[in-house]
Amino acid sequence: MLPLHGIGGRGDLPVPLWLAIYSAGAAVAVSFFALAAFWSRPRFERAVGRPLQVLTRIVDHPATRVVLKLAGLAALALLLGAAWLGNPEPSLNPAPTWLYVWIWVGIIPLSLLCGPIWRLANPLRTIAGLVRRTSYRPLPHGIAYWPAVAGLAGFLWLELVYPEGSDPRVVAIFTTTYAVLNVAAGIVYGPSWFAIGDSFEVYAETLGRLSPLGRGASGRLELRNPLAGLATMPQQPGIVGLLCLLLGSTAFDGISRWSVWTRLTGALGHIPVYTSGLIAAVAIVTALFLLAARATGAAQIRPAAIGPAGLPGAFAHSLVPIAIGYAVAHYFSFAMFQGQEGWLLASDPFGRGWDLLGTSGTRIDYAFLGTGLIAGVQIGAIVLGHVLGVVSAHDRAAELFRRRQLRRAQYPMLAAMVAFTAGGIALVTAS
C-alpha cells in the first residue's frame, strides 16, 4: 500500500512544542486586540479591485477556453487510464499520487494563484456540456452545498479511513463513479449543478476566494485584496459543513498517527474505529465553531444582511485561511516528496515498461528539504492562516455589530481561533 501520509520530519521542531503553541496563540490574540483597538469599520465588505482588461480578454478568448478544456479532459483520461490499465501495485502506478497529491493538494496553490480557473478546466463540466439541451430541471429547493459536502466526505473517507484507498483499482472505481454521477447531474440540472454539487469545483472555488485574482461585478478579472475576495463568499447552508469537514478531517489525520491512538485502537476493527474517529473529529470542530459563532449573537446586530446560514454562515469565510493553513502545514512535506513520485511514475503510466520521460531508476530526493524548514513552514502556515481568519472575522463583525459592542461580540470567536491554532500545531508536529 502506498504510504500517502507521514512523509517528512513532522516531529522535529526547531523550538520546544510548548513554546511554539504559546507563541502562536499569543500572535492570534495580539492581532485580535490590535484590530479591536484600531479597526472599527469594515474595509473589505464593499472593496473594489482594479480591473485587468488585457488578462480578461486573454482568459475569455475562445482559444484559451478550448486549451483549458482539452487540458482538463487529457488529465482525466490519463488518470483513469493509469488507474484502470496501469500496474496494480500502488507504488508502481502514478494514479494514486496524481489524485491525492497533484489534484487534491495541487488545488490549493492553483486556486490561490489563479483564482477561479478550475471551473474553466473542469472536465466533468466539459463532458456534461457536450449534451445540448434546450432546458434543464431546476435544482432541488434548499439543496445548497450539501451535495458537495457529501462528495467531499466520501473522498476524505477513502483517503483517511479505507485501508486500500491507494490501490489503483480503488482509485479507478472512485474516480469513475464520481465522474459519472456528476456528469449525469450536470446533464439533468445544467452547469449550475457543478457550482454546488461537484466537490472538487466547490473546494477550488472556495479556496480561490482568497486569491488576488477574481471576477468583479462586471464579470471582468480584477486584482484585489485577497481578503476582500474572501468577503464575497456566499452565505449558503452547507458551506460551514464543508469547511468544518476540511478542518476536522485534517485534525483526525494527525490524531490517527499518534502512538497513543495506535495503541488504543490497534486491536479493534480498522474501518469502524477510523470512521468513528473521523466523524468525531469533524463533529468537535463543527460544534466549537457553531458555538463560537452563535455566541456572538449576544450583542445587538446592526441592520445588515445575514444569509440563510445565519451567524455561522456570516463568519464561515474566516475558516478558509485557517483551512488552507492546516492543509499547507499538513501536506507540505507530503507534496514535496510524494509529488516527485507522480512525475517519476509518469514515465510508464500504463505499466508497459516504457521510459517516456527518461526517469527510469530515479528515486525520490528526500534530502532537498530539512526538517527545520518543514517545521517552520508548518508553524508559519497555521499562524498566518489563523491571523488572516481573525482579520476576516473582525471585518465581518465590524459590519454586523455596533462599535461599542464589537470587541465583546468577538470573544467567543477569539477563543475558538486560539484553540484551533494550538490544536493545529500540536497535531502536525506530533509523531
From TrEMBL:
The keyword Transmembrane helix applies. It comes from the Bacteria. Keywords: Membrane, Transmembrane, Transmembrane helix. The chain crosses the membrane at residues 20-40, 66-86, 98-118, 139-158, 170-190, 239-259, 271-293, 314-337, 366-391, 411-430. This is Fenitrothion hydrolase. It comes from Kribbella pratensis.
